[in-house]
């Protein structure tokens, strides 16, 4: 397993080209699995389920068509993007289980900072309750999204992956309907009042990875 961490901002198309090549090499048995931690310049990506009407400000940032699952997503400085190039075939050929493991991994990493991430039926990603905000019109606690998940598989090797909001410019999310969901907001670790840095999150991600995925294959 290779852990790759890139400083600065990584061009999106360069990242996709790297993933394409690495996935092919993993499939051929010529390269190790890879977790790549990086940040992108401000941009929007459209997953395979993206609806054009959810791109509300198409001229704001570059928009890239992505073959990952999901809808529109924002990437930018202050957001940790985690590209996950793993052999799902040797992990049981179970896509649902693999996505569940990714969700659990994010939740476990957030728990390192005493943040309770949660999954919601019918809503992709990881959510946090906002008890500091007014109740919704239905009387339920307000909730904001803190992490997105969208993957693709080729020959049972995954790529694309996860994005976790550390300290992005939250206003940048307003150019899209994130993941097609209009009723809820977006938050970050710093927005929640936590002085978490990108290296802090990286440590938490490395620590919790082996707790979620089978050590024999991780």
Could you explain the architecture of this structure?
The chain is α/β, with parallel strands linked by helices and 218 residues long. Helices cover 22% and strands 28% of the residues. It has three helices and eleven strands. The strands form two sheets. Strands 1, 2, 6, 7, 8, 9, 10 and 11 form an eight-stranded mixed beta sheet that branches. β7 and β8 form a beta hairpin. α2 crosses α3. It is globular and about 55 Å long. It starts with a strand and ends in a 6-residue tail after the last helix. The mean pLDDT is 92.
- Major sheet summary line: 8 strands, mixed
Approximate strand percentage: 25-35%
* Topology order in helix (H) and strand (E) letters: EHEEEEEHEEEEEH
Distance between the termini: 7 Å
- How many strands in all? 11
Could you report the average pLDDT, rounded to the nearest whole number?
92
């Amino acid at each position: 397993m290779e852990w790759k961490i890139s400083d600065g901002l990584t061009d999106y198309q360069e990242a996709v080209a790297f993933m394409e090549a690495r996935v092919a090499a993993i499939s051929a048995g010529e390269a190790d699995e890879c977790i790549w931690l990086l940040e992108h310049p401000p941009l929007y990506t459209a997953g395979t389920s993206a609806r054009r009407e959810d791109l509300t400000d198409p001229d704001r940032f570059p928009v890239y068509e992505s073959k990952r699952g999901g809808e529109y997503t924002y990437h930018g400085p202050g957001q940790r993007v985690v590209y996950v190039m793993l052999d799902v075939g040797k992990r049981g050929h179970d896509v649902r289980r693999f996505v569940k493991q990714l969700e659990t991994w994010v939740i476990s990493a957030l728990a390192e900072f005493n943040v309770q991430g949660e999954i919601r039926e019918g809503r992709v990603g990881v959510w946090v309750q906002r008890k500091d905000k007014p109740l919704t019109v239905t009387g339920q606690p307000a909730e904001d999204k803190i992490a997105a998940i969208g993957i693709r598989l080729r020959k049972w090797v995954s790529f694309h992956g996860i994005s976790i909001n550390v300290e992005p410019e939250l206003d940048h999310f307003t150019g899209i309907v994130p993941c097609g969901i209009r009723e809820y907001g977006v938050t970050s670790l710093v927005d929640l009042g936590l002085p978490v840095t990108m290296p802090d999150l990286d440590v938490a991600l490395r620590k919790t990875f082996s707790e979620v995925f089978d050590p024999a294959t991780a």
